[in-house]
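Anyone else keep sequences and structure tokens together like this?

Example one:
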Amino acid sequence: MSDQDIAQRAKSLSQIRAAIDHVDAELAVLLERRLALSGAVQRLKPVGGFAGRDREREREVVEAMAHRAPRLGPHRLARIMNAVIEAGLEVAEEERGAHAR
């Protein structure tokens, strides 16, 4: 049963919130996986961190995601992905600083 089916068939607010909690938990795991992968990219770039941002690559990522999430569209996804990317860059810079000590 899809999340949309669950939302339509749910009898209570608590059922829908439980489904949201489940999706949020999955999203947290995916964000952690993305963070690990983007950290590996940062280590391979000649210029890492915020200075090494590839805006064209970010645009491509957003466009590809917009095909999978058309209701969000590129403008909303760009805001979401900007926050995700910036969080990843912050963590990479913090980890680089911790390793440099």
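And example two:
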Amino acid sequence: MKNFIVRTITSVFFVATIVVSFLNPLAMVFLFALITGMTIWELVGLVNERPFVQVNRFISTVAGVYFFLAMAGHCSGRVTSDTVFIPYLITIIYLLVAELYLKAKDPINDWAYTMLPQLYVALPFSMINVLAFPAEGEFSFVLPLSVFVFLWLNDAGAYCIGSLLGRHKLFPRISPGKSWEGSIGGALLVVGGAALIWYLLSSYVPEQTNLSLWQWAGQGLTVVVFGTWGDLVESLLKRTLGIKDSGNVLPGHGGMLDRFDSTLLAMPAAVVYLFTLTLL
């Protein structure tokens, strides 16, 4: 019971923080730059516990945060030159070349784990900027926030329906608690949420988006599928590392990877979906 209360309080604070941050572009950029840094720091700390792995935790974290901020400046139109990405590229080159002088037992491991946080964390989080700034100088909270709303609805629906009706395991080798019934229940709740978002936007703030009802439903289902895969990918990562939680920074929820695992695949998938529809 105590753990449930702690999880609930953390969830309410977590949701409120994200929603409020989207009311102001600078607040959004600051919050997710911080989240990017904390998540990379956590991930590098975990992989550095593996045998023969020595990833530079500080430089990897700074590089990932810089990439997020560079994407924010580029997408928002505040930075018009592509040279903003040069320091990031130089940092990645440095991290690779440094292995020549570190005399590590397995430099290939170091190279692989050096790139993992950039591809798995920094790049997906930076896609928030693509959704938040669909046109140069224009900020819109609808598309990036909708991804989180769909993920929350999917989690709620999957948990409730899975607890009541779950019989058939979705992926027992990786996550024994997930069921097909829960996944379907989460997807149905997300489609209903997508329809509600479409109705509210078209009725009260039509200038915020030009997605049709079916396009919103497609966006929701895209988030459901890739968000579920994101959860499973992080579960596989934790099983490989032999840990239960990625950290303890969020009481009752574990670490940053535990909280944002679904986001790391759902966010770039949403960008690809909307680009496919030529809406970005």
